[in-house]
Design brief:
Helix content is about 70%, strand content about 5%. It is mostly helical. A two-stranded antiparallel ribbon has the order 1-2. Helix 5 crosses helix 14 (about 325-340) and helix 6 packs parallel to helix 8 (about 185-205).
Length: about 425
């Protein structure tokens, strides 16, 4: 056991040196070995510390044996807390957050909620139906540009443009979904990736409509109307949601409605059909599940949620640009789904805040943020492949050797 751990330590240190010295040791054609070696030493020190911990505890088996009782006790204590209290506490925290934070923190919270909404929409396509979509950010762009064009060209308000953007997003979802009905795996990923790039390039090159790389600006913020009885008369007063706290509460309401909608879909007959398609599409079709209709519906509903988030994004900034909708954004949303737990709504909410807020905390280390991002994702997928808060069904799939791998689910959490 000790010899194997030492061999792993040597191999990991060697590969870390190969990765870090070229990445961090060269800057402006000048070699800086000291800086690279320091960072390499930190990683090697972490590996050595990990080796010492394993040696002291008697190896992996002893670590797991020590960890399991604590994990079970913690899970049992959390399960005793009524779900209503947990949800109420989180809702109260989300409601008072703008009162305790500055504008920068509120803006970060708005960005986190936008990505949570995107993650929940992609969860329908990837988590429930099992369709790998690498062009999901295209539907986000459709919602943003639909509101921008309608508002700038025809003066349509945010609330009137929102359903139009949802319908157009669903149409685009069906357009991408129909050619991929017979595709699976890598082929499906390539087609969806191509669709996302096509949308971005069209927006970038159609100067007469989208202003090309210059983007569109000047869209009005969402407006609320309330009655006024000033001067003895009745009238409607317009209130523009310009402040960050007002926009925060609006996107919070959108996310809550998205969670409710995705949850209801997950527990419905349609959700069970999606699960059947994800597990075995051939068996589902032979069992009478209309796979064609359900896959198109998954694409359409996922696109609808992304369009809502895109419209809010354009209204918040009063500006939109094709460079906001790069392939990397689709990767981040997919990482939120995978990191949080495929098919798990609470996991996606937590992962959205982790992947968006944590890099902001370490913004001072911006040169190494992507390195840390990749390392965290790699470690997470090795140590806890089912995600931060896994769905019960998915957890049983990834831990088939556990004592009760075939325990029946209550149907409420997948």
């Amino acid at each position: 056991m000790v010899r194997q751990e030492l061999q792993k330590l040597a191999v990991y240190a060697f590969f870390l040196a190969i990765l870090l010295i070229p990445m961090l040791g060269f800057r402006s054609a000048s070699f800086e070995p000291d800086r690279a070696l320091k960072i390499w030493g930190v990683f090697v020190g972490i590996l050595i510390l990990n080796f010492i911990v394993k040696a002291v505890r008697g190896g992996r088996a002893a670590v797991e044996a020590h960890k399991e009782p604590w994990t079970e006790r913690t899970r049992e204590r959390i399960s005793r807390i009524p779900r209503l209290y947990t949800i109420g506490g989180l809702a109260l925290l989300a409601a008072v957050y703008p009162l305790m934070a500055n504008n920068y923190m509120i803006d970060v919270g708005i960005t986190c909620l936008i990505y949570v909404s995107l993650g929940l929409g992609l969860n329908i396509v990837v988590g429930l139906c099992g369709l790998l979509d690498l062009g999901y950010i295209a539907f986000y762009a459709v919602g943003a540009y639909t509101y921008s064009l309608l508002n700038l060209t025809f003066g349509v308000s945010f609330w009137a443009a929102l359903p139009m953007g949802v319908v157009l997003g669903m149409v685009c979802g069906c357009i991408i979904g129909y050619p991929t009905l017979k595709m699976r795996g890598d082929y499906l990923a390539i087609v969806t990736l191509g669709f996302g790039e096509i949308v971005r390039l069209v927006l970038n090159n159609w100067d007469s409509l989208t202003a090309g790389p210059n983007g569109l600006f000047g869209m009005k913020r969402p407006t609320l109307y309330y009655p006024s009885f000033a001067d003895g008369g009745f009238s409607w007063v317009a209130y523009y949601l310009k402040s960050l706290p007002a926009l925060y509460y609006l996107i919070l309401i959108i996310v809550v409605l998205t969670i409710v909608g995705v949850r209801r879909l997950d527990n419905s007959r349609i959700g069970r059909a999606w699960i059947a398609i994800r597990e075995d599409e051939t068996a589902a079709e032979l069992s009478g599940v209309p796979t064609t209709w359900n896959k198109l519906l998954a694409y359409a509903l996922g696109a609808a949620f992304a369009s809502v988030a895109g419209a809010f994004f354009a209204a918040k900034l009063s500006y939109t640009n094709p460079n906001f909708f790069l392939f990397m954004e689709s990767c981040i949303v997919l990482c939120i789904v995978v990191l949080g737990g495929v098919g798990s709504i609470p996991g996606i909410v937590v992962a959205g805040f982790v992947l968006i807020a944590v890099p902001e905390i370490f913004r001072g280390l911006e040169n190494y943020r992507m390195l840390a991002f990749g390392a965290i994702m790699t470690i997470m997928m090795v140590v806890k492949p089912e995600g931060l808060i896994p769905a019960s069904r998915r957890k049983r799939e990834l831990h088939a050797t556990d004592p009760h791998p075939h325990e029946e689910s209550d149907g409420r959490d997948r």
